[in-house]
Amino acid sequence: MKILTLAFALAVLAGSASGQDANGLFYDFGPTASCLAGAQSLSAKQDCVGKAAEACVEKTGYATPVLSGCASRELEDWDARLNAVYQQQRAYAREFDMGNDPNLPGLDTSLRDMQRAWIPYRDATCVYEAAQWSGGTGAGPAYIGCLLSLTGDQALYLEFGRIGG
Question: What is the extent of the structural domain holding 17?
Fold first, then answer.
């Protein structure tokens, strides 16, 4: 048992030294960050979503668990960014809402309602993407890839596309 534990520990350390994470993935957000730094428009920035996952797959290998794993890692980064940007935009909306039109809800309320409506849209869209694989092995990567794409696009839309951007 001690030999197996030692072998596992050495494998984890070797993987860490080579850039692999605990799941054996070579994931780094760098390719996406580099792409974003060079992109001038919102649509060009949205084209950067998924670059880190693509590089991860190229370095780790083209297997179904790798496709899902690499996309999941980048999705985590975009989800954190989306949540941070959403909170910043809410603060901006509360501070700078002029509320001049009695026929429209306030900026903060509109932002909140838009985001609440976007979540079920994202989820239903990604279930549809997965369903196109009829339960095959591509369903998981299709679902995660869809979540990654839509979450990254939404984060960038809130960050650069509208108010306070």
Answer: 2-161
